User: What shape does this take?
Amino acid sequence: MPLSTLQSQLLQKMNVPKDLQEAFAYQLGENGLPKSPDAPDFLMVLTDQFQKTESHLLELRKKLGLVSIGKLPKSKFLGEEITQETVEEVIKQEWVLATALWRTTDQVVAQAKNYGITLSRHHVQFALDKKNLAVVEMIKFAKPEFFKVKKPLFIKAYLTSFIGILAGVSGFYGGLIGGARQGFESNIGITAYISAFFYALLGIVRGWAMATVSGARFGLQTGNIKVAIKLGYASALINPFHDAPGSKYQQEEQLVVEEVIFKLAEQ
Assistant: This one.
């Protein structure tokens, strides 16, 4: 089934590979529309492929780290002996593809109707299910009402914020688990266990700080005690060391925040 003229032109303009263009067309119906009411539309197909490419890129970066320290088992990779150069070349190719898909998706969200799409909450939920923060944020920018939470009364907001601060004690446990996780993932072998132990100890303190700040902030923003406590704990568990925006753990934390706020706005 052919894509619409505008869809084809966009994919070509963004240098999306021909085989992917054909794969997109196969998943869609005539003129690039969904095959049925429950079938994925053009934006969902893009979101799915975008996330697959991002996940593959992350795995390649992990592999590059192992290659660079000589810890990758001897084997073949894409028909070649695994070397730092071969992995770097594949990473470069995947990064180019990810960039092309990001630009394409951003354009589709910004001008959805031109590509046969009506943005809905279903698209947000689909992106959340795929754990694609970039697409969630694109839709949030285009449709901020999907994430708009009713402003709480002044007294309720500050009372909830205060409770969020008190609930920051949950960050001790969250930071313990989250810190251990980061320490374990950042190393291999016996070093991973040693690192996990010390990261966990540091995470207890840092996690408490994260939970306190996040609990207070989201309590003030939403006036919802359950949300304040949940997001405070999530901050400590997922990102106890307050990694910079764009980093792996910060993005994981932000994805949880967006999902909770989206669900609250839906209510």
Observations:
- The longest strand covers residues 76-77.
- Confidence is low (pLDDT under 50) at residues 73-78.
- The two ends are 39 Å apart (CA to CA).
